[in-house]
Amino acid sequence: MAVQVLVLTFQNLLVYSYGILSLQRINKDKLKQSIPYFKMPVLYAMFIGLGLNAFDITLPQFLYISGSYVADALIAIALLTLGAQVIQLNFTKNMFPVYLSVGVRLIISPLIAFIIIPFLNVDTITAQAMFIASAVPSSVNSAIIAQEYNNEPSFAAQAVLASTIFSAITVTIVIYLSRIIFV
After folding, report:
1. Taken in order 94, 95, 101, 107, is the CA torsion positive or negative?
2. CA-CA distance, 127 to 180, in Å (whole number)?
3. Spatial distance between the Cα atoms of 137 and 59, rounded to a whole number of angstroms
4. Tens of pLDDT along 88-141?
5. Could you give the dihedral angle defined by the CA atoms of residues 154, 155, 161 and 162, in that order, rounded to the nearest 10 degrees?
6. Residues 24, 54: contact at Cβ < 8 Å?
7. 55 Cβ neighbours under 8 A, 6+ residues apart
8. Closest Cα partner for 18 from 52, 1, 43, 41?
9. Which residues of 129-158 are buried (b: 16+ CB within 10 A; e: fewer)?
């Protein structure tokens, strides 16, 4: 579980930093592109969480309970947001870019992980967790950010939807292979 938390934290840090900065770079100068980055609450939440953990500070019960409710609702809210985007989608005949992104995410990423993980010299469970994490579908966060910054939101929603559907097959295979390869 700890490995998965670290992997997801690193992935979210990349999405909420490099992802936002690269989206803003298209139409704005460096100063204007960095302003939305500092408006994202995820950045501050991560640093506060790291600080609380580093100094072994326990949240007061009323904050912890409220935070738990928000955390429990996160997946449902993200899926509702994706559903709202999917309703507005106009699927085109040229779906090659979507399928290409899905192929990279669900097939190429695990292949790269398969090559890199043995060099990391990690234990079996960690290797399996990293290999499985490399095969998860595209994050709903990417579709939400694309919608927020009006940068190909249709493509992002289609990629998330397609990768989620196809991941039922590919993630099952990767989980099976992780138990064979990393023993």
Report:
1. negative
2. 12
3. 33
4. 777 766 789 999 999 999 999 999 999 999 999 999 998 999 899 899 888 777
5. 150
6. no
7. none
8. 43
9. bbbbbbbbbbbbbbbbbbbebeeebbbbbb
Task: Give the global pTM.
Answer: 0.73
Distance of alpha carbon 117 from alpha carbon 12, whole angstroms? 20
Q: Name the residue with tokens 């989206």.
A: 23
**Average pLDDT of 28-44?**
71
Rounded CA gap, 61 and 70, in Å? 14
Q: Enter the tokens of residue 34.
A: 């960095």
The span from the CA of 156 to the CA of 151, in Å, is 9
* Separation in Å, CA 25 to CA 7, 35, 79, 168: 26, 11, 28, 34
Residue-wise DSSP of 44-101: HHHHHHHHHHHTTPPPPHHHHHHHHHHHHHHHHHHHHHHHHHHHT----S--HHHHHH
The total number of residues written for the chain in this structure: 183
